[in-house]
Amino acid sequence: MEIFKKAETVRLRSYHDKYLLADDDEDSVNQDRDGRCMNARWKVEILEEANVIRLKSCFGKYLTASNMPLYLGMTGKKVTQTLPRRLDSSTEWEPVREGVQVRLKTRYGQYLRANGGLPPWRNSVTHDVPHRSTTQDWVLWDIDILEIRKKKPPQPILPPPPPPPEVLMATIDDHAEHNSPKEFSLKSPRFSKTEVEDRVSSPGKADGRLIYYRVGDEDGNVDEGAKEELFCFKGLGLEELKQKLEEETGLSDVSICSKNPLNGKLYPLRLHLPPNNSKMHVVLIPSSSKEPKTVTEKREGDPPSCNGSTTPLISGELKYSSKLRIFMFNDLKLATRNFRPESLLGEGGFGCVFKGWIEENGTAPVKPGTGLTVAVKTLNPDGLQGHKEWLAEINFLGNLVHPSLVKLVGYCMEDDQRLLVYEFMPRGSLENHLFRRTLPLPWSVRMKIAVGAAKGLAFLHEEAEKPVIYRDFKTSNILLDAEYNAKLSDFGLAKDAPDEKKSHVSTRVMGTYGYAAPEYVMTGHLSTKSDVYSFGVVLLEILTGRRAVDKTRPNGEQNLVESARPHLLDKKRFYRLLDPRLEGHYSIKGAQKATQVAAQCLNRDCKARPKMSEVVEALKPLPSLKDFASSSSSFQTMQPVGKNGVRTQGGGGFVSRNGVPLRSLSSLNLPQASCCKRDGSVESEALGSFGMLGSLFLFL
């Protein structure tokens, strides 16, 4: 701790002789050998009472120990740079001296760790407790002091101020001789007129906040040439400030507004007041004004008045789309029945998702079971995906319309609230149907879903006005409507594709472990062919009924792609990959064609992978093929022999539900998203699923 008490700015060097760097995306943290750049400089803030420090990057954000894994299924939690509304213990690091080096301990009892090894772990930074002796030194850091902390000079003891002139006058009058003149002129060098005004208008540091204000007219217009009035406010809340301003101006029932410096618009002030010793500029609007209007003329592309929403949009971030409805927070609160647990559909990395009901063509809440059913996604204020992904969702889904994309109905941006409103998808996610213990999806439905998902990617890559890389294609992000039409959701990681002159864009690796293309993981080079690889992984999951990564399986079978690759193009062995729950109810030609398409999408050479439009054309005929393997005389001879000498169907034995074998799926109705009652029966239920890090479930 002593070394940090002496330092104003430091540089941290890891065991790998690399420096801790704040990434230019102002979100992630990594390590690099270039320690001369500003990104390697960290300002030290000391909390002596707790014996911990905070490290602030050159972007003014704090080094933060998150509770999110770096990669799914792997050890180590993310370390990021954030600027939370309230500083909590996630930004605090306890220095633990280790010889001449230091360990930085988190609130979780883990240590800041500089990772080595192969990509994507190389150059990453996590917080973890090393379990292997070879990684024990990865949590040790050398501290280079770049700036010495300046000692605050002792405050000089000032003599007490002289009494006011009137006091001196009275004192002199009392002691004056009777024959002396009655008038007395006192000129004190300490109290010139200017200095007296300065003392009145410039309070000391402990006096409160300086409030600068102007008064607008009833239409919300403000004379920019008018001088701002000033007073010192020592109160604690907005109500006190309002009373003080009404006393200062003589007005009653005024609205206190803040002006957005980016677009010149006025918005009623509903946030907390800034801390003491700070300045605040406000505009007062008389009560007869219905809503504050913009000071400047309305610009082309500005969003409407947000149905009374009082939070200004961030210029240059949020793209305006006339297709989206803009909701009030209280309306969504009522639509979801006060976000009660019974309305909860699930929870993901972004936040919670609730079921709600609104007007068919409006934003007002309606009685459950009437109007338009929607899924309302709330932003977790402590989540890592946060505002950037909320914006990406609006900017992409708000301007893209296609039958294979989930419809974004609208959004709410009021004060600190960030919500998204989607069409409700009653069949839930593809992940639910493939990996939960429900009736297996028939072959034709699986192929229908594969074609629909492929059409969604093809639209993003080749038909959208500006090509888009989806970057997070996986089964939990493929939602199903009542007719099992596939739609892509969750565009939080989407990115604009490079122009025709470039083959890729370079970006930090994000997404879900097991689905990301190898060249993207190794180099950070992202292209539309990265999505094609992810589609190949999902197509394999559809064919096999297995997860992309399954730690419960034996070694050598945990990674689906690598274990399936030898069988994909083998006409004699491809059937071994197919989901045994299909029990032969699949098209032989269709299955062979689908495995070939998967093999092409999973080609290690990204340039050899097909376009998604080519994938769509190859898969289109497959849902209607009827040459079921179970009807073929050769099907029984294709099955592997079990231990008792009996051939097992589908390579995986019979699958039963409540003791009844499932042998004729073609005669069954299409499966419902379901949940089991206590008596063992199955009850159909509409499910909604949104979120980055997994499927979201509705439990009755």
Automatic annotation (TrEMBL):
ATP binds at residue 377. Pfam families: DUF569, PK_Tyr_Ser-Thr, Ubiq_DUF_assoc. Transmembrane segments: none annotated. Residues 290-302 have a biased composition (Basic and acidic residues). PANTHER family: OS01G0588500 PROTEIN-RELATED. It comes from Brassica campestris (Field mustard). This is non-specific serine/threonine protein kinase. PROSITE patterns: PROTEIN_KINASE_ATP (PS00107), PROTEIN_KINASE_DOM (PS50011), PROTEIN_KINASE_ST (PS00108). GO terms for biological process: defense response. Keywords: ATP-binding, Cell membrane, Kinase, Membrane, Nucleotide-binding, Plant defense, Serine/threonine-protein kinase, Transferase. InterPro entries: Actin-crosslinking (IPR008999), DUF569 (IPR007679), Kinase-like_dom_sf (IPR011009), Plant_Ser_Thr_Prot_Kinase (IPR050823), Prot_kinase_dom (IPR000719), Protein_kinase_ATP_BS (IPR017441), Ser-Thr/Tyr_kinase_cat_dom (IPR001245), Ser/Thr_kinase_AS (IPR008271). One of its GO terms (molecular function) is protein serine/threonine kinase activity.
